[in-house]
Amino acid sequence: MQDVEKTEIQRDTSARRKRRRNRMRPLYGLLVSALVIGVGVALSMTVFFNIDTIEIDGDAPDYTAEEIAQASGVHTGDNMMRLKRADVQKNILDRLVFVDSVTVKKEFPSVLVISVTPSKAAFNLVDDSGTLQVSAAGKILKNGPETVESLPTITGFDPSTREPGQALASKDSQKDKIFQTLSEQIAKGLDCPITAVDIKDKYDIQLTFDNRIVFSMGNWSEMEYKITLAEAVLAQLPSDKVGYLSMVGDHQCSYREKDAVEKQTTAPNVTTVTDENGQLVVETDENGQPVSTTTTTETTVANDWQ
Fold it and tell me: Is residue 71 part of a domain?
């Protein structure tokens, strides 16, 4: 009887051990998986995926491929997994003045591709301290007395820095937004080019088209719409017209010829526009009286861009 009882106890203990092992099996699997992953990550960060080749793509005529690679701060043998693209981009943009943008692509297992876009002067920014030549992306390229005649000239920006290689910034952050919007519009292409921009008064921005039409667009709100509206009016004018264009309300522009405006000092002048219903809108003086019509002017309206 005693032998039988002992055998039964041993069988019961063995069953409990098996059940315990079965319960622990998933935990063992997790531990093993974590260990394998940890070893794999450690190897990928040290032994595997090290850079063998750095390829330079894009056209940057001011720099050789070797100079760009050196400016990146990356060396062959560096680990791809540990490399931060943002650091590479910042290194190149900070160290190479005539590079406007950088993209970094990892081609595993061992190739790093760096693509660069060169900086090109897009604007003259003129103030009492001289002239800054800046790119369309707003990077300062040169600081000196010379202006490039073929580039639009911006006045009244109030730059907070003049250091080549730095990002253009104004003491007034709203003027930064004005610059960005103008740059984007010009980059899209305009039928009548903008040749000068005056933002000394950000509530009365003046754009000069083709060195002959001065557009008073008011403040910076809806700048894209206002420029598009001005283009529509300019398209209706002969290409030799010289004068002044200004916003009338939110959806109309009025045009005045330069000669007529200059004669206002000796002969009062009327400028007319039509509203959206085709009715004439007559300018009045400061007392609310209609301006005399002794001198006629040509007027142009675009009210179908609402």
Answer: yes
Q: DSSP letters of 241-259?
A: --EEEEEETTTEEEEEEHH
Q: What is the pLDDT of residue 5?
A: 53
- Please indicate, yes or no, if residue 136 is contained in any of the structural domains: no
Beta bridge partners of 253: 247
Residue 297 pLDDT: 40
Q: 0.85 exceeded by the pTM?
A: no
DSSP symbol at 159: B
CB 121 within 8 A of CB 152: no
Within the chain, which residues score under 70 in pLDDT?
Answer: 1-47, 265-306
User: Which of 65, 98, 118 is the C-terminal boundary of a domain?
Assistant: 118
**Spatial distance between the Cα atoms of 167 and 124, rounded to a whole number of angstroms:** 15
List the domain range (segments joined by +) for residue 105.
53-118
Of 91, 118, 145, which residue constitutes the final position of a domain? Answer: 118
Taking the C-alpha atoms of 222, 123, 234 and 271 in order, what is their torsion angle to the nearest 10 degrees?
70
Q: 56: part of which helix (H) or strand (E)?
A: strand 53-57
How many domains does the chain fold into?
2
